[in-house]
Amino acid sequence: MIKLAEAFEIMMSSARRLDSEHIEISSSSNRILAEDVVSDIDMPPFDKSLRDGYACRRSELANELTIIETIRAGYVPR
């Protein structure tokens, strides 16, 4: 087994920058973007979690918890 630094050197010595090209979005599957795509609006327009889960205060963990709201994808929290 080789050391991380040696593996990194091997990889970097054979890496090369690829040219970019303009293609139709319908042909873009399995491609890598040449630059970041940034939205000019927040979507959805409210704070959101990146994954499903529960939020609770540590002090409440000793008690039975109550679900106060279920927010489905695309819906605004009440």
Give a written overview of the molecule:
It is flat, with a radius of gyration of 23 Å. The mean pLDDT is 85. The longest helix has 11 residues, at 4-14. Helices cover 14% and strands 0% of the residues. It contains one helix and no strands. It has a domain at 42-70. It has one helix at residues 4-14.
Please state the CA-atom Rg, rounded to the nearest Å: 23 Å
Straight-line distance between termini: 55 Å
In terms of quaternary structure, what is this?
single chain
In total, how many beta strands?
A: 0
Profile the largest sheet: none
**Helix/strand order:** H
Runs in which pLDDT lies below 50 for 5 or more consecutive residues are none
Mean pLDDT across all residues, rounded? 85
Number of helices: 1
Percent of residues in β-strands: under 5%
The residue fraction in helices comes out at 10-25%
Structural class: little secondary structure
Concise summary:
The protein has one helix at 4-14. It has 78 residues and is mostly loops.
Main attributes of the structure:
single chain, little secondary structure, 78 residues
Give a topology summary.
Layout: H1 4-14
